[in-house]
Amino acid sequence: MEITQFLQNKTALVCGSTQGIGKSTAIKLAEMGANVVLIARNEVKLKEALQKLPFSGNQKHTYLVADFSKPEELKNIISEFVAKGNKVNILVNNTGGPKGGPIKDATTEEFINTFNQHLICNHILVQALYPGMIESGYGRIINVISTSVKQPLPNLGVSNTIRGAVASWSKTLANELGQYGITVNNVLPGATNTIRLQGIAEAKSEKTGETISDIFQEMAEESPMKRIAQPEEVAAAIAFLASPEASYINGINLPVDGGRTKSL
User: Fold this and answer.
1) Could you report the per-residue pLDDT of 11-28, keeping only the tens digit for each?
2) What string of DSSP letters covers 197-252?
């Protein structure tokens, strides 16, 4: 089977799909034949991203507008989507991380807001969509989190904490849904050329006086490959886990970091 047919007649919902890893993932899944549903909070950017998705055959791409800082709003939107008879075979949970900083300085509101945007919203989507995966006989849930679940990253205290919670939630879910042929896996990007990484570099630059280019070079030097990743490289790993070829891979954390993480 050609790679462009791997996901033919499958529908993928990709979160945070107007930029970075989410957008690259949506494009890759569309290239593999999937019908893609984009979801993010900015409708203008969603419409722009929709135009970038490749079409072949009878593919149908669309989008949903939802703000992940408002879980109840997301719940209503996805419930309405499912009530119309829509089924999703592939769910890519991908949400931008919180601002950086030491954990000792983090407010309780930062933890609560990040928990809602990540774990709670992931859970809302899974609860709405997994029955359709069972009914259709095909299910892939892929969570884009962070290598911090294996090795906490400096000055990302809130992110380290919540990403770990999502990883444990995901493993538990994999244990429960595996019997239905639904796989649940995590992709752990390392330093990746996204707006999020740019923001982290800018914040560090303001604090230390280093140039942004020097900060990016330092990040690159942390990897044995001496460079940071491109969003398309992370998207390729997500697309593999979404494909039929990954049918017996379940409950794993897959780093895509060029070997930066020191643990196995």
Assistant:
1) 999 999 999 999 999 999
2) HHHHHHHHHHHH---HHHHHHHHHHTSTTSSPBPHHHHHHHHHHHHSGGGTT--S-
DSSP 8-state secondary structure symbol assigned to residue 52: T
CATH homologous superfamily of 3-191+230-256? NAD(P)-binding Rossmann-like Domain (3.40.50.720)
At 16, phi and psi to the nearest 5? 60, 45
Q: Please state, in angstroms and rounded to a whole number, the distance separating the CA atoms of residues 121 and 66.
A: 11
Helices and strands (H and E) in the chain: how many: 9, 7
Q: What is the pLDDT of residue 1?
A: 47
Q: Which helix (H) or strand (E) holds 76?
A: helix 71-83
Tokens coding 17: 């799909």
**Separation between Cα atoms, residue 95 and residue 181, nearest integer Å:** 25
Query: Is pLDDT above 70 for 4?
Result: no
Q: What would the mean pLDDT of 206-230 be, rounded to a whole number?
A: 94
Residue 169 identity = W
For residue 57, the model assigns a pLDDT of 76
Return the domain boundaries, the chain. 3-191+230-256, 193-228
